[in-house]
Amino acid sequence: MTSLPKAVTNVEENDIVRATFGDRTVSGRANPVAYRPGQSIEIEIRTEDHDPIRYKLRSTRTNDEWEPLTVERSVCRDGARGWEAIGTVDEVETVHSVRDIEGTTH
Fold first, then answer.
1. 3-state SS string over 2-54?
2. Taking a C-beta distance cutoff of 8 angstroms, is the pair 87, 3 a contact?
3. Using CB atoms within 10 A of its CB, is residue 62 exposed (0-12), middle (13-18) or buried (19+)?
4. Residues spanned by the domain of 18
5. Total domains in the fold of the chain
6. Tens of pLDDT, residues 3-24
7. For residues 76 and 54, is the Cβ–Cβ distance under 8 A?
8. Taking the model in full, what pTM does it have?
9. DSSP assignment, residue 64?
10. Residues 6+ away with beta carbon under 8 Å from 54
11. Contacts of 77 (CB under 8 A, 6+ apart)
């Protein structure tokens, strides 16, 4: 399953991303996005409903192959933050790209 991490390497901050893992789907604004070409990708998804739970999609590249795209969750309360691995992403898509918006407003 090396295609999922490669598929998200074009995600930019503030794109709306939807990820499905197991029987769950989460979607929200990608912020921040940390892509190190050929090395790793991390995308934090902030849900639109201001839920304190955030999700992070993560993959690293080893031996010229992308590792499976994993999902983690975090609950931010009283300034404390920690990540917990909760699964492997089955599907991911950019629902709305900031490039589309920028292309129509300039």
1. CHHHHHCCCCCCCCEEEEEECCEEEEEEEEEEEEECCCEEEEEEEECCCCCEE
2. no
3. exposed
4. 3-105
5. 1
6. 678 788 889 999 999 999 999 9
7. yes
8. 0.82
9. T
10. 44, 45, 46, 47, 73, 74, 76
11. 52
